[in-house]
What does this fold into?
Amino acid sequence: MSTVAAGEEGVMAAGLGRRLAREVASWSVTLKLGAVLLALIALAALMAPWIAPFDPEAQDYDAILLPPGGVHLFGTDNVGRDIFSRVLYAARLDLSAGFALTFVPMIYGVLIGAYAGYRGGLVDAVVGGIANVAIAFPFLVMIVVVVAVIGPGIDAIYISVFLLAWTMYARLARADMMVERAKDYMLAARVLGFSTKRIVLRHGLPNVVGSSLVFAMSDFVLNILLLSGLSFIGLGIQPPTPEWGAMIAEGKEFILEAWWISTLPGLAVVLTGTALSLIGDGLARRFSDRHGGPA
Amino acid sequence: MKALRYILLRLLGTLPVLIGVTLFTFLAIQFVPGDPVRIMTHGRLGDAEVEAIYERLGMNRPLAVQYGSFLVNAATGDLGESIIQNAPVADLVAEKVTPTLWLLGMGTLLSVLIALPLALFAAARPDSAFDHAVRAAGMLGFAMPPFWIGLLLIVTFGLELGWLPISGFGAGWWGHVVHMILPGLTIAFFLAPILVQSLRASLLDALAADHIEVARARGIPEWRIYLKHALRNALLPTLTVLAVNVSWLVSGAVVIESVFALPGLGSLLVRSVGYRDYPLIQGLALVFAVIVVAINLVADLSYGLVDRRVLRKLP
Amino acid sequence: MNGASPLLEIEDLSVVFHTRSGPVLANDGVSLTLRAGETLGIVGESGSGKSVFCRAILGLAKGEVRARRMAFDGRDIAAMSRSEKQALRGRGIAMVFQSPMSSLDPVWTIGDQLVETVRHHKGLDRAGARRAAIALLDRVGIQSAARRLDDYPHQWSGGMLQRAVIALALAGEPRLMLADEPTTALDVTIQDQILALLTELQRETGMALVLVSHDLGVIAETVDRVAVMYAGRIVETASVRHLFERPAHPYTVGLLGSMVGAAGQGERLRPIPGQPPDLHHLGTGCAFAPRCSRAGDDCHRAVPRIDPAAAHDAACLFPMEAER
It folds into this structure.
């Protein structure tokens, strides 16, 4: 009995593997390149404690402002900390925060938007109204306001972004859902008497999540830029915790004699952002293909 | 008069944004742990003096009344008073608003100047090597932190080459222009890619329209079809994209001011957080919202100018 | 037939679209001649390649165009440079399209587009072009043209817009006008007005007119000669009278039978059985053979060529005429 079950599982796993392989094979070059790049960066971040040659916060006054090369692959900063180790540890923070800042609001944003787009009426008017107002909010200023209340740090960013960022996803999902709702299969689902919940979640959602996913990739980039930008002006992650933007700020004073302190963390942001943009570009093409792009 | 009604409706439409931003700020400040006046004055004052400040700022009134009077005062140009700097918020803002507006203007102008030819050439030959190069460059530019680009520009064009000033606002009209080139370019690094991508896609859409083929059939030269008919139709969606990104543009400006030591609203905001100058923060939030809304309004109005059908869709 | 050289000579024109699912032969060996001032109708179901044919003549077809000969006024179109082809458009050959609502650029006024066209063809100054534009609108029957010149397309009805599109086509004083389903998108009452206008303009200017339609009725009241198109091929050419009195190709017969008004009183309309063919998979035989009650084995193998010079000819091995 158990061997049969194991065999079935094996078949299912093989089927899944084949489907995954076919899916990956259909990806565009940009999507593959972006996915590989992001996977490498994420792996490096995950493995930071094992890869990093030094403690990211350990100061070494015998090794101040060393240029890249030798033991210190990316050189050292003005208090002798190893830039490479700091860039690695910063990746943990920037990636995980960027991920949460993007996908948490996306989840409830898409749900709210899809529901509003499906239901129409008052719910839709309210959601649409809020979304239209929130999109004109000067984002960073709102975060700064929260920082002024609860103090600098990542919490202020989480609070403001979670309060505001869902509206963008709600907008996208709402617009798509309004198109989907008019289609025949939706009508069929309603005629068959499926519950609203089932129609929205099972039938609508898979068709409206595409544009949000594409947008999420640029949103991810923007959120990393937001976090690093706030840290750069001193309102985000506080020293000595390694964060890409904060590191760029730390190297600002030494930019002429030690270019690497600011430049290399900046390159890390560019690399991550490019990987995400490549994925976004690939996803956009993939979804437009599926929806019958030009022949 | 349809155009007038259009403008009035748009103006009315900005009110919810302004109310939203001020309400957000106002409520947030209620959450300040402890006594905001004591925090603002760093505990240097006695109880009686603190009480007097409360009285003067009207902070012992009910919340709704406080918020209402803030709105009413703001409508008349009175944004409250900074206790720490002992000056009206409106005056502090007026002093710093010019560099910020210059930065936004220069940034948008340079972005458009860079984006327009790139998008036109890319869309003229879709999927050509040039098109791909522009897209790749756009991805890179979009992923670059503006403050980091700013630093690199300072090092290259300011310190190494010595061509352009790297900080401050300069004096006189020409001085402002020269001082705004590097900060404006910094904005262009992230704004231009967004514009290029949108304009390229819109151009391709516009070129697929029926009336383009009709124009070809009546013998209009291809360049004219492209620049007169396709471009103008493609501008509309791009204007919308520009408007959607205004809040990011303004956010970017706050950070960029700090890189180039520009004495603008962004620098003032960052400083006011350090001092916990709550009336100033609240006033600045409103001013930033007004800037965003005003840019959106300009985009909306030009939308109506470029495409008259917008006016017809009025309720 | 008189001896004058024809205005338009098309010999063996093929248009191939290369799509993801393989090549599509939208036009296959189309031959046609048209004398100056002649009026010709091209009739066929949608997807039969009528519009592609018009676009190929103008050099606007998206696919790959091949022809043994393609000449306008004795000049070889295929040998023309890009700028020569462009100069031909509007001045030599003009075209009116199916959907007036989307034929004009929505963000420019109608006057802008007329003035642009007139200036391009005539090299007039702005004021002169404006006067010419008003005259053109006047000529196509727009009331108080001077006042309406600065309207945007969305302010006009479909019928008025089609008049404006015709005015645009007239701006270059063309010697041949192609009208691709010019009335299909319009109300029935407007349709007759537009057809009357086209006929009137044709008589006035002496230009040749090619009217493309799926509607034999529209064709019958406007033109002298008809070409019937099926699956990218011309299957029959005849004068309007001959076509109605003695249709030779079984497809033409079917088309006539499915026409409202053609069927006698009390008779039912007889739709043609079967589906239009898939242009991906056309064999060498007659494309209509699978739907044809008269088809024999040979029909699936080869199809006779039509003689473009003949007064009446059908691309059929078993034409109806043989029975008469």
